[in-house]
Amino acid sequence: MNADEYSWLLGHNGAGRKHAGGNQAPSLLELDAAVENRLALRGPLLLKRAWPKRPGHTALEYIDANGKLAPGQWFADREACLQVATSTRRGAGEFGQIAVVGGGHILLQLSGADRKLIGLAPVLARPRATLVVHRPERRAVVRLEDGIETRYAKVVVPHRAAELAGQLAALQLSVGGRLRIPLLRELDLERGVVVMSALPGRPVHALLDEPCLPALLAAGGAALRVLHDSPVPDGTASHSARNEQAVVAHWLDRAGEFAPAALPALYAHRYYVSAPLTGEATQPVLLHRDFYDKQIIAAGDGSVGLLDFDTLSTGEAALDLANALVHLELRCIQRRWPASHARRAASGLLGGYEPDSAIMRRLPAYADATRLRLACVYTLRPQEASTVTALLDLLGTPIGEL
Fold first, then answer.
1. Which residues does 203 contact at the CB level (< 8 Å), separation at least 6?
2. Fewest CB within 10 A of the end CB: N or C in the chain?
3. CA–CA dist 97, 318 (Å, integer)
4. What are the DSSP calls for 331-347, one per residue?
5. Residues 232, 286: contact at Cβ < 8 Å?
6. Least confident of 207-211, 242-246, 362-366
7. How far is residue 228 CA from its own chain's centroid?
8. Per-residue pLDDT tens digits for 343-362
9. Which residue from 120, 151, 152, 150 is spatially nearest to 135, judged by alpha carbons?
10. Distance of CA 227 to CAs 67, 119, 283, 297, Å?
């Protein structure tokens, strides 16, 4: 890398004023005025969430003072950061923008700049395109409006696009019109872009304080039951209780790298949470594997549809139910709901699904695994540190009984 290229990457006078040395990205990132102007950001940037990728490397999502997303990556090794910045800049095309800040440890990636998600910058350049999420070098979602139909573009590494599109088509055949799910609208295999229709209505997450919440969750539970009762498409991956143990272990490792001070409290519960998963498993069903209130879309007539089937697999029904129920506990923590509100919400979901005794027997094990996993996730969101303690305090609590 020559001197001119290095200067361009860093901006005037190098990096932001608060640098990001040490073993993690800063929760508050200040930028030079020149970098702010070039990237159209208003600092300081607040760390919204993080996804540790490997030791010394974390994907980031900052947000500026105006609410604009500023995705990026943190590297413990400055040279590694500059190498990725160089290749990202070369692949950014005419739209993407980057800057290296934080003392040379953080690469900010604006306007879809991403060396692996090569379809993101062109999609964001479309009229009335809005970035919803960008996990650098992994996936992104963009909302597209054309005045007629709202659509969502999912941008992935190109070789994954065919898999996602095929999975959606197979699921459509499997549910046979009994479940409302997004429809494929556009596919660009070369760039890794899968565009889907939007479902009518609003996420149940946006309706959590409405009196109709238990009824909407009952409809969501019934929709989940339709999914679980549907034929399994050929080639669907399996996700056993042992796989779930591995997921929890993975998140413990990631949390330990990003927030080592929290690790003793998290690790103290590892065996207690892991052991019950080894109990007698129920018959596998077609799982969503990321089912919770943001994935349930409620239409005006009270009917619902489901979103986001990237993690479709087979496994125990209790996993999906536990994930949704623990997220309701999480909303109780975040919104300071009374316990009665959370119980009504949980009752609505279970009433709509109607689990049998075997599924109910497996719920506690999957609920505690979800609580510990989410506690790890929230160690990566510095503004919600109290949530980690609250989730750990719930371990062993009967599900839906705060």
1. 293, 294, 295, 296, 297, 298
2. N
3. 44
4. HHHHHT--HHHHHHHHH
5. yes
6. 207-211
7. 22
8. 899 999 999 999 999 999 99
9. 120
10. 36, 31, 14, 15
User: Each residue of 60-95: pLDDT tens digit?
Assistant: 999 999 999 999 999 999 999 999 999 998 877 677
Q: Are 123 and 155 in contact (CB under 8 A)?
A: yes
C-alpha distances in Å from residue 229, one per residue of 3, 175, 287, 291? 61, 9, 10, 15
* Cα–Cα–Cα angle for 26, 29, 30, rounded to 5 degrees: 145
Question: On the CB side of 49, how many CA atoms lie within 13 Å of its CA?
Answer: 10
DSSP 278: G
Both structure tokens of 349: 């979901």
The pair of three-digit structure tokens given for residue 247, joined into one six-digit string:
């997921």
- Distance of alpha carbon 140 from alpha carbon 113, whole angstroms: 11
Q: Give the tokens for residue 317.
A: 């029904």
Q: Are strands 313-315 and 296-298 parallel, antiparallel or unpaired?
A: unpaired
